[in-house]
Amino acid sequence: MEWLEQVKWDDQGLVPVIAQEVGSNDVLMFAFMNREALCKTAERGEAVYWSRSRQRLWHKGEESGHIQKVHEIRLDCDADVVLLKVTQLGHEPGIACHTGRHSCFFNVYRDGQWQVVEPVLKDPERIYK
């Protein structure tokens, strides 16, 4: 698969991935993919990542139901970062973060400290049983 060879994989065989919501353009999360994850994402039309903590493929939403439908896969100019344009499914509004928030980027630096600016949409205890 020539298109996979055009990606600049790091020493661990991974590439950073940004998931961005179609429509709002909100950055939902950051993760990694290996070749198999990127290939499965392209085949399924749903985000599949490489979980560094679990050391295995991770189909986004496999436990939570918060699946990411992939509309587009983009590669940056240096071929070392992948951008997924997704619709976040499973809850309205979509929950991408394991904390139960819409986005993993819910902390904003203001006045010398990090401030939480997004509410918890669903208690993680109820998401991950």
UniProtKB/TrEMBL annotation:
<dbReference type="GO" id="GO:0004635">
    <property type="term" value="F:phosphoribosyl-AMP cyclohydrolase activity"/>
</dbReference>
<feature type="binding site">
    <location>
        <position position="97"/>
    </location>
    <ligand>
        <name>Zn(2+)</name>
    </ligand>
</feature>
<feature type="binding site">
    <location>
        <position position="104"/>
    </location>
    <ligand>
        <name>Zn(2+)</name>
    </ligand>
</feature>
<feature type="binding site">
    <location>
        <position position="77"/>
    </location>
    <ligand>
        <name>Zn(2+)</name>
    </ligand>
</feature>
<keyword id="KW-0862">Zinc</keyword>
<comment type="subunit">
    <text>Homodimer.</text>
</comment>
<keyword id="KW-0378">Hydrolase</keyword>
<keyword id="KW-0028">Amino-acid biosynthesis</keyword>
<dbReference type="InterPro" id="IPR038019">
    <property type="entry name" value="PRib_AMP_CycHydrolase_sf"/>
</dbReference>
<comment type="pathway">
    <text>Amino-acid biosynthesis; L-histidine biosynthesis; L-histidine from 5-phospho-alpha-D-ribose 1-diphosphate: step 3/9.</text>
</comment>
<feature type="binding site">
    <location>
        <position position="78"/>
    </location>
    <ligand>
        <name>Mg(2+)</name>
    </ligand>
</feature>
<keyword id="KW-0963">Cytoplasm</keyword>
<keyword id="KW-0368">Histidine biosynthesis</keyword>
<feature type="binding site">
    <location>
        <position position="76"/>
    </location>
    <ligand>
        <name>Mg(2+)</name>
    </ligand>
</feature>
<dbReference type="Pfam" id="PF01502">
    <property type="entry name" value="PRA-CH"/>
</dbReference>
<comment type="function">
    <text>Catalyzes the hydrolysis of the adenine ring of phosphoribosyl-AMP.</text>
</comment>
<keyword id="KW-0460">Magnesium</keyword>
<feature type="domain" description="Phosphoribosyl-AMP cyclohydrolase">
    <location>
        <begin position="29"/>
        <end position="106"/>
    </location>
</feature>
<protein>
    <recommendedName>
        <fullName>Phosphoribosyl-AMP cyclohydrolase</fullName>
        <ecNumber>3.5.4.19</ecNumber>
    </recommendedName>
</protein>
<keyword id="KW-0479">Metal-binding</keyword>
<dbReference type="InterPro" id="IPR026660">
    <property type="entry name" value="PRA-CH"/>
</dbReference>
<feature type="binding site">
    <location>
        <position position="80"/>
    </location>
    <ligand>
        <name>Mg(2+)</name>
    </ligand>
</feature>
<dbReference type="InterPro" id="IPR002496">
    <property type="entry name" value="PRib_AMP_CycHydrolase_dom"/>
</dbReference>
<comment type="similarity">
    <text>Belongs to the PRA-CH family.</text>
</comment>
